[in-house]
Amino acid sequence: MKIALIGYGKMGKAIEEIALQKGYEILLKINDENLADLTKENLAKCDVAIEFTNPESAVKNMRTCIDAGVPVVCGSTGWVAREDEIKKYCTNHNGSLLYSSNFSIGVNIFFEINRRLAALMAQQNGYDVSIEETHHTQKKDAPSGTAITIAQQIISEHSDKNNWTLNPTANAEEILIKSKRIDPAPGTHNVRYTSVIDDIEIIHTAHSRKGFAAGALAAAEFIAGKKGVFSMSDVLKITN
Fold this sequence. Notes:
By secondary structure, the protein is α/β, with parallel strands linked by helices. 36% of the residues lie in helices and 24% in strands.
């Protein structure tokens, strides 16, 4: 498999290490110093592109890949307000897109546990729910895309929750997300249901970037040669 890495920071380099161990080729490595190399012609030589950049450039990069006819795996966060737009663009242009707020296999299993727990807790009175996420200080967006996904899953199951907030509030319809930035934490997410009787918590803690990199590469292996819009649930064969 021939890969384009759009975003050659710590995550891009972690993906490259695993990809080379598997015998794959990295034909294109894009960072701030060679943005002009991100062309349809260069992308067309690749089987798949893996995009880890920032909210400002992610949508443009995905469009470029779709226009080049190259399946794109996107792990950039902070742009989800335009998610429906880029998915529609992909479908209308017969492209291939797989986006996830987190590519860790463990986190995606955590998502399914969170969804199921939220459905169970929606039937209980007396519990309030909150989310806490901790990442390294270089992470630009807050809350994390993973925390937003967790909140959206809870909201979809709870008729009395309609939004999330970063600021403590007396509004019982909002889910509080606490964001912490502490080095060298690669990522911890905690969902806590609290009552006067007891607490129920689920926690996922990442120990390194390797889990994210391995998951992103698994997504690239899955989407290569396919058309359509996919998620990690498709990669892991999780049925909702």
